[in-house]
Amino acid sequence: MAAEHDQNTGARILDGKALSEAVRARLRERIAASGRPVRLDALLVGDDRAAGIYATNQGKTCAEVGIEYVLHRLPAGATYDDVAGRVLLLNSEDSVRALMVHLPLPGGVDAERVQSLISPEKDVEGVNPANIGNVVYGRRSLVPCTALACLEMIESTGIDLRGRRCCVVGASNIVGKPIAVLLMRADATVHSTNKFTPDLPALARECDVVVAACGVPRLVTRDWVKPGAVVIDVGINRIDGPDGRKVTVGDVDFEAVRPAAGWISPVPGGVGPMTVAMLLRNVVDAALR
Ligand code: NAD
To answer: Is the CB of 192 under 6 A from ligand 1?
Structure first.
């Protein structure tokens, strides 16, 4: 692939919106062909404004592909026992086949404990540790959506990951580690790195794929990237723009890296929309299983 790279034209763009639209079209067809209802149940606790807006938008996104959306609510004063009790109740209902809990939860309610209660076969965000374990073992499992999004985008380039070296920058439980495991499952040689990794630019520069998932604005610059490499930017960072207004940037310095890379995903419009599409796919998988 590196041989095909043309420094004059720069990297090809991995258009997350277009890729996600193709996924959604296939999901619409799958749902229609199944003749069965597909539904996502989501639990929203408290009155966090951003979470409320996210939930409203999620309902619209589901409707667009033919997924019914049922939002369950608990008040801001809900305790851990209240939230846990509702999750267990939803787990027990046969009509609930795809379940997620919106974050943040009120202070004092441990999100990880709550997530670990979601039935693994209904856990469409892949946040129950049992599902991460299943990913490691290569069992059929609901994989965290952002990791799935990265893999789909890498595979859309046509690269054969077997024998390729990949550098995953960032190793959080819900993003970096699952991405590294999915790449390992594709028989790539994977470097899982973190803020303590020495001389990270030199390591990344030896790799055919770089996935940036560290939450550090524009950390990955041109000297991190081997000519022709696939660069996937997971970061979503809000920083002050030149005119003082907030702008969203990734963990990759897009303008600097584009001339060197073979493929690059933009922020916004890259991994973000694909992550939403992967959640919808997990919902359909869970519902039609
Ligand atoms: P996190 O803070 O939980 O983990 C960050 C990881 O990056 C850690 O392993 C840390 O050691 C590593 N790191 C930090 N600074 C580093 C450095 N200078 N060099 C190398 N490694 C470094 O973050 P997270 O939840 O994994 O999220 C990472 C980024 O991805 C954030 O920008 C977040 O907003 C974004 N994100 C995007 C999506 C999406 O759908 N696109 C979903 C989840 C998170």
So the answer is: no
Question: For residue 5, what pLDDT is reported?
Answer: 58
* pLDDT recorded at residue 1: 42
Q: Are 191 and 166 in contact (CB under 8 A)?
A: yes
Q: What are 164's two structure tokens? A: 């390729």
Within a domain: residue 171?
yes
Measured distance CA(119)–CA(128) in Å, rounded: 8
The alpha carbon of 214 and the centre of ligand 1 are apart by a number of angstroms equal to: 3
d(CA 276, CA 100): 13
Q: Are residues 102 and 167 in the same domain?
A: no
End residue of a domain, out of 85, 120, 155: 120
- Which pTM was predicted? 0.95
For residue 246, give every residue at least 6 positions away whose Cβ sits within 8 Å of its Cβ, in sequence order, or none.
238, 239, 240
CA distances from 151 to 7, 10, 88 (A): 25, 22, 32
Ligand 1 pocket member 248 (CB < 6 A): no
The C-alpha angle with vertex 166 and arms to 162 and 170, in degrees rounded to 5, equals: 140
Low-confidence ranges of the chain (pLDDT < 70): 1-8
Q: Provide the pLDDT for residue 3.
A: 41
Q: What is the pLDDT of residues 104-122, one digit of tens each?
A: 999 999 999 999 999 999 9
Note down the domain range covering 63: 35-120
Give the CATH number, domain containing residue 72. Answer: 3.40.50.10860
List the structure tokens of 180: 């590294």
Tell whether 170 is covered by a domain.
yes
The atom of ligand 1 lying closest to the CA of 251 is: 32
Residue 9 located in a structural domain: no
In total, how many domains does the chain have? 2
Instruction: Evaluate whether residue 165 is within a structural domain.
Output: yes
Count the neighbouring beta carbons within 10 Å of the beta carbon of residue 84: 16
